């Protein structure tokens, strides 16, 4: 059974940085496309960033471009999200996700991801 466990969330101030981590277990996801999504209270789940299985392609949501960076460590079976210049509107629960198919195509659509973590809360105060 695949498990994704996010960590690194917390309460920070506007302009601060945070680094989220997602540890995978139960299966190596080193050759699987993965991504980060977020959901704020009363809002729909939003695409944040995604990375192809080879890590050669990375995509970002418009609201985080230039501030967030997605990366992965295949040996550690981990996914990361470096978040800089945080804003109050970045406040949300952040979810790590992965597609089930090895060497599957890059995607930024939540419906394409079969594996999901339970989320980590990020709160940015003004």
Brief digest:
The chain has 126 residues and is mostly beta strands. The protein has strands at 3-7, 10-13, 18-25, 34-39, 46-51, 58-60, 68-73, 78-83, 92-98, 115-116, 120-125.
Describe the structure.
By secondary structure, the protein is an all-beta fold. It has strands at residues 3-7, 10-13, 18-25, 34-39, 46-51, 58-60, 68-73, 78-83, 92-98, 115-116, 120-125. Strands 2, 4, 5, 6, 9, 10 and 11 form a 7-stranded mixed sheet that branches. A 4-stranded antiparallel sheet has the order 1-3-8-7, with no helix packed on it. Strand 5 and strand 6 form a beta hairpin.
Sheet-strand content, in percent, reads over 45%
| Low-pLDDT segments | none
Tell me the radius of gyration.
13 Å
- Please tell me the overall pLDDT: 97
Compressed to H and E, one letter per element, the order equals EEEEEEEEEEE
Quote the distance from N terminus to C terminus: 40 Å
* Main beta-sheet annotation: 7 strands, mixed
Which bin fits the share of residues in helices? under 10%
Topology:
Elements: E1 3-7, E2 10-13, E3 18-25, E4 34-39, E5 46-51, E6 58-60, E7 68-73, E8 78-83, E9 92-98, E10 115-116, E11 120-125
Parallel strand pairs: 2-11
Antiparallel strand pairs: 1-3, 3-8, 4-5, 4-9, 5-6, 7-8, 9-10, 9-11
